[in-house]
Design a protein that fits this description.
mainly alpha; membrane; SpoVAB
Length: 139
């Protein structure tokens, strides 16, 4: 009986490591980390960024698997949410920019003057949609 459990543990850990490694290599391979470093003029910290992303994934999985009670957690949850949202938003925008989605779209539709308003509209719409989602209790 315990051999079957050990095999399941090994298979589960192997699949998790493979999936996480694929995601992290996808992030690094697309140049998201180097793009962040280029935009912020902190190219000497690229290894630190990569280590922070890997540690964030590791600790996120550990906290998911083993529920940890954090003192004053209600204070830290909104802060964590803000930083998590910033990360996901920056990742999505960098991915879209790397794939040259915006320059092609802007050239085709000829929207040169409206770019700041479009970006602000996307940000406000995303924020209001998130507020409605969590205010209604769906989240």
């Amino acid at each position: 009986m315990w051999i079957k459990q050990m095999i399941l543990v090994v298979l589960g850990l192997s699949a998790g490591v493979a999936a996480a490694g694929g995601l992290f290599s996808f992030i690094v391979g697309l140049g998201v980390v180097s793009e962040f470093a280029d935009r912020t003029h902190t190219g000497d910290c690229v290894l630190l960024y990569e280590e922070a992303i890997a540690l964030g994934g590791i600790f996120g999985n550990l906290f998911y698997l083993f529920p940890v009670t954090i003192p004053y957690g209600q204070i830290f949850v909104p802060i964590f949410g803000v930083f998590g949202g910033i990360f996901v938003g920056c990742w999505a925008m960098t991915l879209a920019e790397i794939l040259n989605i915006f320059p092609i779209f802007i050239r085709r539709v000829k929207l040169l003057r409206a770019i700041p308003y479009i970006i602000a509209g996307i940000a406000f719409g995303k924020g209001i949609g998130s507020l409605i989602y969590f205010w209604k209790g769906w989240g």
